[in-house]
Amino acid sequence: MESLGFEFARPWALVLLALPLALLVVARLVDRPPAWYTGAFELWLRVARTRPDDARAQKRRVPPPLWPFALGLACAALAAAGPRPGGSGAGAWRVIVDRSPSMYLPASTDAGAPTRLERAAKLLEELLAGSELEWLDPGDDAPVPQRSRAMPAAWRSPPEFTRGELDWSAHDAAGVVWLTDRFPAIAPARASVAASGGVALPGLVGVRGGTGLAWDGERIRETTTGVEPACVECAPPLARAWSELVLVWARARELATCAAPAARAELRIAFVADAAAPARTLAFGRDGWRAHGDVRGAVPGRDARGPLAAWLVAEDGTVLVAVGPGRVATVLPPDLVLDEGEEAFAVSFARLFDACLQPARGVVALAERSAAGEACFLAGAPPGPRRSHARSRRACRERAGPRSARAGARRAPVDVRGPSRR
Q1: Are 286 and 300 in contact (CB under 8 A)?
Q2: Strand (E) or helix (H) holding 155
Q3: Which residues of the chain have pLDDT under 70?
Q4: Per-domain residue ranges for the chain?
């Protein structure tokens, strides 16, 4: 339910607004005008001389203390209804852009074909020609809507780090468009969807050492053509136990190791301790292992490539290890001493490195390379006042195609082959 630019998550709760109204009505009904008690002729004469207002003309009123109570009940009823801003602003469509790896694959096998992202953006710009568009990349470090008729040119190139899939349900609102390549598995309740579609694109889906795993459209085969092994950059001085672990981990996965600074690395491990800071003896651990050592400084909340998430924190709150896509920053001392859990230490950090490692150059997951079906557009609730909803939705339906095509789009794009990622 939407009203005055707001929509309610639980519109049924608006029925509770009847409670303060009922309270005021009852309070007014039980109020009585003052009574005159007479028992002598003199009193009747006094009444006749003063001629007080007739009892029927006495106005019934609500006791003043009940007004703030009724106002509190009304506010509680509105809060229970869950009001929130409806849509993305008057007349402006907010476009949520999917920048996962599949969006940067060619939409077809033709030479010079646009990427899926470019095709979806063009489809949307044609359908909403003349409308105000706000482009938003939720995967950015600090997402800021950019208002323009065309998608920002910088987004036509893939981001530095591989993006995961978006949580579309967090952006299901009126005046919002999901810009992606294939129709999501769960159809939106309020948002619109512009999907580029796209054919299956064979290519590298994995690299192990100097051997690549290539998908030819039917099965995965080994290849050595155009394969570059992933590289791990280690910046000394790392803790000896950790440095040895990195080498064993990289060797087991057939990854190349390189010294800093490397021009390209799928994982960068950096020692960022402050040599000028005083040393503090700290105890720390997680995942079944414990250690201690003299620590200098702490890992900052971000580096030159973006924010870092704390992964290992000492008992006093000092961040000792922080991670981000393709990078691990640490202040663990080179003379770190393991107190217990040597095997757990190895398993814990190996899992961390696996989670942070970026795909090798040219590698795109098989699920991303699979076919995305035909291009489709599903019209949802438009931005702006409720009164324009029917006209805007009808216009979107005319652009989207016949009813049968839209019904098929709600289930999945036409001719989808392979498992869905959404």
Answers
A1: no
A2: none
A3: 1-9, 31-60, 84-91, 236-241, 260, 384-422
A4: 2-85, 92-201+370-411, 231-356
